[in-house]
Design brief:
One of its GO terms (molecular function) is hydrolase activity. The protein is an alpha/beta fold. The protein contains eight helices and six strands. A four-stranded parallel β-sheet has the order 4-5-3-6, with helices on both faces. Strands 1-2 form a two-stranded parallel sheet.
Length: 218
Amino acid sequence: AGVHVVIGTPGRVLDMLGKKVCAVERPPIIVFDEADKLLDSMFYSSISELLKILPPKRQMLLYSATFPHSIEGFVRSNMNSPRKIKISEQNLQNISQYFARVKSTTKLPCLKSILATLDIDQCIIYCNSRANVKNLARKITALGMSAYFIYSDMAQEERNIVYHNFSSRKCRILVSTDITTRGIDAPGVNVVINFEMPSSSESYLHRIGRAGRFGSRG
């Protein structure tokens, strides 16, 4: 029997098709999960090559919590009379949002005060770079609070260990890049802190969406 479902990154699926590891013998159904991420500059060339070698008669499904202009442009260029199905509006009613206006030199003392004051079950703190993630995790640990860190360039085995330990509540604080904004569920997270603000409103929504899940408050 042949393979019915192939799951992978665009580049890996393209590689498997090119090496004839799997073949498309009938009109395929193509699913892009987290479509807003897949259609950014990092993956777009692989997506374009993938669509060139797949049969023109196909069904494409795009799933995303946010639909930026990149998706709208892709839809106009590659889909025929598509239908948009909106499950519900983005629900932020369970999430309380606050901001603190501080100087760069007082960000760490402010963070320390927040961590000591809030009733935290588990917390994810976001930075925009690998170096800043590692540096902040070390500083939090030096303050006497245990903190894990995670970013995309870590070995997969290391990331799995960090995620497993955090999800099993062996640690309350996780310092992260945007790698944890998608595809993970940590029900214990009730606080999200943007130590560095993201570059887009979409990233902001994905970040704060780690809290207040499944009807809980964050």
